[in-house]
Structures are given as structure tokens and as C-alpha cells.
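Thread: NAD(P)/FAD-dependent oxidoreductase, structure

OP (GT): Posting the sequence first so everyone is looking at the same thing. Length is 408 residues per the record. Can we get the C-alpha cells written out before standup tomorrow? I want them in the notebook alongside the other entries.
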Amino acid sequence: MSLAPTGTVGLLVVGGGPAAHAAAAAYRGAGGPGTVLLVGDDDRPPYFRPALSKDLLRSGDPTGTDDDGLLLEDLTGLDDVAIRVGTAVTALSPAERRARLADGTTVGFTACVLATGAEPVPLPVPGADPADGVVHLLRSLADARALLEGLSGAGSVVVVGSGFIGCEAAAALAGRGLTVTVCGTERVPQAARLGDAVGDRLADWLSEAGVWLRGTAEVTGIDPTAGGRRVHVRDGHPVDADVVLVAAGARPRVSLAASAGLPVPGGRVVVDERMRTAVPGVLAAGDLVSARNAAAGRHLAVEHWGDAEEMGRIAGTTAAGGDAVWDSPPGFWSDIGGRVLKYSAWGDGFDEVAVTTHPGGGFSAWYTRDGLLCGIATHQADDDLDTGSDLVRRNAPASSAPGTPDTR
């Protein structure tokens, strides 16, 4: 591929999420030379996506008139930063350090940060096509608007998937007075990631929010009915609903990286602790990467908002010639019907989990692997979260965990 440049920038950022936003801001903050150009295929500048499955669904306006409150800091207020939205980078030549946009424009760059994120995984069963206006995915503001519009006149929703987006959205929709059923493949939400004891608590939160949970309920097909859809479940009764929301996970968007010749083993771009790829001048950050964490001593794949921001900050700083390293444990928070779970962990498995309960319904779950603390999950126990996150970062022995566990 040979691209004739029509302009050259110091940093080209490809993507419109938190990693892209943070990379552009950090590059400029670290004194990186030249113009920064952020190119995103969303129809708006970077915005706060976590609200889509919570606040926006609870009280959102389908016309989009209140969307401006979700926008992140306006990068164009910084010197020599430009944003192009509603377009995509369709070709990238790392050797020539040039990129082509969907409109045919070509851009030369000194450094490039790929932050293309991830996209929802459609449900691979008959009748699950989201193009029909009844079955929905949720990743962007446009998706959220379409879902809110589809809820007009609806009385019931089936949410397929009991991950955090599915649980958050289900609780938010139940708060609107809808009858909501969650069909998840695990017995309780997040059992594999967080253990049965925490999963049971999440199931209780859903119940208290008015959500019906169908565990170990693999969806095998979706049929149209007179007013909506019938969701068929293996080894169980079908569920009828006016609207279906599929929250069955996400997959990294690596097609641009792969077409540019970057290695993508396991479907992710591999980067070091400074977010550098194997190709000079090209960095990557966020959901599409497997990044080496300096404290963990190994590569990790995470899909959390805060970690994408942190990776983007590191990528932008590195591209500007600064010194930044990813060495903090990944983490997230999740609001399920007003109950907030906070989590900090390496996220690649545990041997045991011990749960300590606190007055008022709070708890702390301590995760260990090979005798070392590898994670902490809390509800109404921020002191334990801070302590646990520090112990995880230091790979402290399990005996360092405070308190006496009462559940295993």
C-alpha cells in the first residue's frame, strides 16, 4: 500500500473512546510535537459510555437532547488538537507512517495510537438480528437512542447476558417500571469471574431491583410474535417480551491493526507496559490490546473504562517521549440498581475467594492465586478496596488480607 499524504500530524489517534481521548490529552500535556488528530467513527466526540447502561436507560431521552452532558473534556480546547468524528481510518501504512480515511483523505503521522476498542458480539442464534428494531445491542449513544425509542409503549424486556452491562441495563429498565427478565448462561451473574458467593449477592441485587433472573439459560433462538419476540431457552420455558437487549459480550476491533501488518495473536494487539507495539511508531491502548503489566509481570487483557483511560494516558505520554508505565491492577465499578460493586484484580483467574461481611450489607471478597492476593471486590467497603488494591499490586501473600472471612 502506498499513500500520498495530504498533511502530516505529530500524533494520529484512531478511535473515539476513553483510551483515544486520554492518549490525545496526554500527548499534548507531555509536550509532544506537532498537531494531534483524533479520528473516530462514532457520530460524536468522545463521551462517557458507562452511563449508557445506567443513568441514560433510567431516565434517558430517545431524541438525544440531553446527550451533551455525557461528553468528555473538549480536546479542541487544547492547542493544536483536532477531532474528526463520523469517519474511519480505512488503511494504515506503518512503514510509510500514513493513513487513509474513509473519505479518501490521507494523513501522515510521526506516531499513531490505535484505540479502536471493542464491539458487541451479536447473538449467534436464529432471529437475533439487531437490524429488526426489536432486538438491540448496546455500545454507543446511537444504540442507546434506538433502544430508548424501542421502549416506547413496551411493557417487557428480555436481557440476554448476565455480564455487567446486562445486569446494569436490566436493573435500570426495571426501574422504569418494565418487566425485565435476564437470561444468563451462568447460574448467577459473574460466577466465573467473581465466584459463587459474590455472584449470589449480585443475583440478590437484581431481585431487589425487580429483575427476574433465569440462570443457566442458554438462548437458542428468537421468534417474532404478534407484539414482540419469544426467546427460546435450552432446557427451559421460552420468555415473551416486547423488546430484547443482547448483552452477550464484546470482541476487540483489530481489523485495522491486522490489515496494517500488526500481529494480533488471540485476536488482540500485543503491547508492552508502555503501550508500544512491535511496529516502530505505532502504539495501541484499551480494549483491543493484550498489555504487559509491569507489576503483574505478564500480559493482561482487560475491558474496563478506567484501564482504557490509563492505557491511553500511557500511550500518549510514551508517544510524546515521556516516561509512563502500566503497573496498577485493573479495576472497575458497577452500579446495579443503586448497589455499587468495586473491583481491583489482575483478572486472569483465582484459586480461592474468601468473603468478609460488614454491617449494613457491605462485603469484601479477597481473591488468592498460588498463595498470593490477586484481587479484591467490595461493596460499601472502600477502605478494604484501597488496601486490597495496594496488596494486589505488591503481589502480597494471602495472609496479608485483613479481617476474618466467613464465606468460601
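GT: Both are above now. Quick notes for whoever picks this up: The first strand starts at residue 8 and ends at 14. Residues 8-119+251-319 form a domain with the FAD/NAD(P)-binding domain fold (CATH 3.50.50.60).
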